[in-house]
Design brief:
globular; GMP Synthetase, Chain A, domain 3; five-stranded antiparallel β-sheet; 573 residues; five-stranded mixed β-sheet; Rossmann fold
Length: 573
């Protein structure tokens, strides 16, 4: 078994299994398939070019490209040259470019990167990053990196740094997570082994991944590309923006290419139910999809239920939906629900939940998804504030340990790993050996001595006519008048009485009356690079009078941004 990503790429290229490789599908559903042999050849050419550009072994290179073949060229090219790839997200909200430039520059500095390499269309707006940070090798156009023969291929060793993956940064600035070859391969193999154990391959049944997740995100890179590389098979990739504009493309790709495994955050399943029309699914067959992994954010049992019911007529199995738990610091997955069985939930008393204890009830209460048991080699404990291990049903901080737990945050004096355990910052409890997450520690809202999970309040407004599904933020605030509950809601269709309807929906669902429901224009709420809502940042902006909609992207504004980018590149050229 290979011990580095370079060795895994060489093995996949040598095996050259028919149909194996990376398939890139655009929004018009046109596909480009690159075999693993082709990917390695392109990466070798890119590696030589990076060395010629001045990149040395052990140095970090930021990669800023969308979902297209050049991402593979750069990521694997860095590794073959001995450099460390640092995937960063491209600009997706053109109305917030200054915010993007500040955040990107901070990540380049945190990674101590010597170069930023971008694709041509990203490069056009990226120049202003150079006004904030100047890496030694500068800002490089991926298309202009020379194809240069590489004298010596860097093979790497298992404990060598393989990549830097930034945490999502929901409550704080994104942190650079340092991951070794052994860590990322341990996690991707654990995922693949679970799938192969329950659904073995045969001559007529080969596993195939399908993903629209961003390649700078651990769920898209470690959870999708690495398993397809290590167990040479095919992975079909769609651009995230194509999925968001037309969610049916995801299900159509699963059907067309025989996808068996595909992960997504919870909002994606709700978006499919809300936006996909039957007319877009003519001939779609989802019967081969055995592992629809749901993770990366709080999981709504209602979303799982509605997705299963909505797409069962198209062959979706009752057992396909699989709630999971993971995080960047663990190189992705920590727990999996049992494959081949329907997803499960538990109902607990809402009053006791607010007091820090999970007491099961037969009806009513709060329904929470069960996220499964730890993967082989992993452990999960629930601990109190002093570090003591809590019994089942007691709510505390989720701690994890396992073979893919990060090396640490890059170049930081203080590290969060203590005796092999990581405090995830999440709150939850164990139920029959399975993890149930109740919220994020820093996001919990305390009102009159009781804890309330913000997602429960936020989901209450999803069905209110005119509100945007999944686009609400609930936060707690201490004012001179005492504890306050504030709810910010993006509006799809403005109408009179919408704020009052949101208040009534929250009262009915949670028994709480917000002190304020603030209606916002679409796109106003701050998000992480992976699309998660940043609650504390929303509150900070509101308090400072800066919670405002992004600038509209007019031709004049876009032309100005391109001109400023070009000027910055010339100035720092």
């Amino acid at each position: 078994m290979t011990s580095t990503l370079q060795a895994a790429l060489s093995r996949a290229a040598e095996l050259d299994r028919p149909g194996a490789g990376m398939r890139f599908v655009d929004r018009r559903e046109r596909a480009t398939l690159l075999s693993w042999e082709e990917i390695r050849g392109r990466a070798l050419a890119m590696a030589g070019g990076l060395v010629e550009a001045g990149v040395r072994p052990g140095e970090r290179v930021c990669i800023v490209v969308p979902t297209e073949p050049v991402f593979a060229d750069l990521f694997f090219g860095c590794l073959l040259a001995g450099a460390v790839p640092v995937p960063l997200y491209p600009p997706v909200r053109l109305g917030r470019l200054d915010e993007y430039f500040d955040r990107t520059a901070a990540m380049v500095e945190a990674a101590s990167a010597v170069a930023i390499v971008a694709s041509a269309r990203v490069l056009r707006v990226l120049g202003q990053v150079l006004d904030r940070v100047q890496p030694r090798c500068g800002l490089l156009d991926a298309a202009k990196v020379p194809s240069t023969p590489l004298d010596v291929i860097h093979q790497g060793v298992p404990d060598e740094l393989a990549m830097v993956q930034f945490s999502s940064g929901t409550t704080v600035a994104p942190k650079p997570v340092a991951l070794t070859h052994s860590q990322v391969l341990a996690n991707s193999r654990a995922i693949a082994e679970l799938l192969l154990d329950r659904y073995p391959e045969s001559a007529g049944h080969q596993h195939c991944g399908v993903s629209w997740l961003p390649l700078y995100h651990d769920m898209g890179l470690i959870g999708c590309i690495f398993p397809a590389l290590d167990h040479p098979s095919s992975i079909t990739l769609l651009p995230p923006e194509a999925f968001l504009a037309r969610p049916a493309l995801w299900l159509r790709a699963l059907s067309k290419y025989g996808g068996t495994i595909s992960p997504a955050p919870d909002f994606a399943y709700a978006l499919c139910v809300e936006r996909i029309k039957d007319s877009e699914l003519d001939g779609v067959d989802l019967s081969r999809w055995v592992a629809a992994l749901d993770g990366a954010e709080p999981i709504s049992p209602a979303n799982l239920r509605s997705f299963t019911e909505r797409f069962a007529p198209y062959g979706l199995r009752e057992t396909a939906l699989n709630p999971v738990y993971g995080l960047s610091e663990a190189a992705l997955a920590v727990t999996f629900s049992e494959m081949s069985k329907p997803w499960r939930s538990v109902r607990v008393d809402g009053t006791m939940l607010a007091r820090g204890r999970a007491e099961e009830v037969d009806e009513g209460g709060v329904e929470l998804a069960r996220l499964g048991a730890p993967l082989p080699g992993f452990s999960v404990e629930i601990r109190d504030a002093e570090g003591g291990v809590l019994p089942d049903s007691a709510i505390g901080r989720v701690h994890v340990a396992g073979p893919s737990l990060m090396q640490g945050y890059l170049d930081r004096d203080t590290q969060p790993i203590v005796d092999g355990w990581l405090d995830t910052g999440d709150l939850g409890f164990l139920y029959d050996g399975e993890l149930v997450v109740t919220g994020r520690g820093k996001d919990i809202i305390v009102l009159r001595g009781r804890n309330h999970a913000p997602q429960d309040i936020e989901r209450a407004v999803d069905d209110v006519e005119g509100a945007r599904t999944g686009c609400a933020v609930a936060v707690g605030r201490i004012s001179q008048d005492g504890e306050q509950l504030l709810v910010f809601v993006e509006v799809r269709t403005p109408r009179e009485g919408l704020a009052d309807d949101c208040i009534r929906a929250i009262q009915a669902a949670c028994g709480l009356r917000p002190n304020l429901v603030q209606l916002l224009e679409p796109g106003t709420l701050p998000r992480t690079s992976s699309g998660k809502l940043r609650r504390s940042e929303a509150l900070r902006r509101w308090e400072s009078g800066k919670l405002a909609a992004p600038h509209s992207v007019t031709p004049i504004r876009l032309a100005g941004a391109l001109a400023r980018s070009a000027l910055a590149r010339w100035r720092h050229g």
